[in-house]
Amino acid sequence: MTTATVRTQVRVPIRFPDGYETTADVVTFHGLADGKEHLLLGLGDWHAALARSHHGGAAPLVRPHSECLTGDVFGSQRCDCGPQLREAAERITDAGGFLLYLRQEGREIGLYAKLDAYALQDRGLDTYEANTALGHGEDERDYTAAAQMLAAVGADHIRLLSNNPDKARQLAALGVTVSERIPTAVHASSANVRYLAAKRDHTSHSIDLDAVLALAVTA
Fold it and tell me: Is-catalytic flag, 139?
């Protein structure tokens, strides 16, 4: 894995639609493996979290979050991306750590293809079957750039905020020590229950399906 370096760091106040506010040190990079404009957001007292980790304490809390225009910006309920982003911002601010905003729309198949996949899901395919029906892999994301970003800010040990075991596997293979994998909450609605169930059943995401179904019934 090649080395990436910090390009700029800018402090940005952030406010979510529900009123939650935090401040992020937004970092850009030179030398990312895929050439994309990924962002690292340092949240809370991330400096102290790094120092603590380097002295054998708890590692910074980190979420690699894949860009989702429909969920993150427009509040689509067909996925859980927007609520996960909001949850991650608060939890990482409280703990000290990093939110990696990765330009990997639609599990790296792109926005238009993701919407094509939605159309196929409306005909009965699940989220993974729809991707493969379009000629893509089930999940084409690669976390090399994420590992480079973490290395550039000195985060070689992390606590991973994610339901996805593949993120932990890839990061570990890239030299990032994942001391703990912490699941996000279940963000269910009647519009995304099939999507969440597919992630739980097909790729072993850490999702309590019983809780999902119970929440969907009352949504």
Answer: yes
